[in-house]
Amino acid sequence: MTISDFMKAETLEIPSYDFHRLDLLTSKLVIAKLFAADEITIDSDNNVRIHTKQGGHLPENEGYFHSMKYLVPAPNDCECFKEYDLVSNLYPLVPERLTNALKRYEHINLEIKGTRTYRVTAFSNAYMALFDQDARTIHPVHGLYSIDRHLERKPETYINGFDNKRSNFQFFDFGYDWMQDKKGMMLLAYVAPRELTTKDRVEIEKFRDSLPDYYQGVMEGWTILVTAMKIDNLVVLPGKRTRKEMIAKLSPEFWEVYKDFEFKFLDGTVVSKH
């Protein structure tokens, strides 16, 4: 398929969508199609179907060194978003409830005219950082680490790459400040596994028995429950997990300290200890 045919196609199917595996040109073309989409569906296997009546236009330059990113809302009932509010390899696709929550607090701008696409600012300790989070730099006990992309030479492997700890996550983008009131939110994300290099595959085997949760997380991805509170700021478990499983991992200290708080997920579900 030529670039022209790609852009003119009214219906486009992308099997097993994984933004992190797209080269630069392909990622620009895919985002352009998403910009112009009239309808988007995603199934449980991350097969994305885009229907559009007009061609898209290429997005402005964006990348890991740029603070601006995009969000394209998809229906909340898409299978992949029934449990999760964010899936890392589906960037820039998110459930409508996420963009709606941002709009309520005016932390989002509709700047791409003629589209349903939003431009947002990406911070290293906010929800957008989860799109860039590498599964190889998540520790089952110590949490999330980032990759130093300013290095002149890319390392052979990111396995056991626990040098740059991320700061505690916050929800200011959603209008929540735990110091001002006793209302909070929780966000459930899935950080998908990355494609492993030959060196990665050698190194990860060293953790199969010594740190099995890390091994599983690298191979299967991680579920992240973000509370943005001082206690249990993040809850991390390997593999795909449910809300119920993640809430059960919150500590007794969390429930005691925040016993007077009301927490909700983005869909309005009230979080309960039981």
Structure description:
The chain starts with a helix and ends in a 9-residue tail after the last strand. It has helices at 3-8, 24-36, 96-104, 129-132, 198-204, 212-220, 243-247, 252-257, and strands at residues 11-14, 39-42, 48-51, 68-74, 86-87, 93-95, 118-121, 138-139, 143-146, 164-165, 183-191, 222-226, 234-238, 262-265. It has 274 residues and is of the alpha+beta class. Mean pLDDT is 88; it is low at 61-65. Strand 2 (39-42) and strand 3 form a beta hairpin. The strands form four sheets. Strands 5, 11, 12, 13 and 14 form a five-stranded mixed β-sheet that branches. Strands 1-3-2 form a three-stranded antiparallel β-sheet, with no helix packed on it. The radius of gyration is 19 Å and the shape is globular.
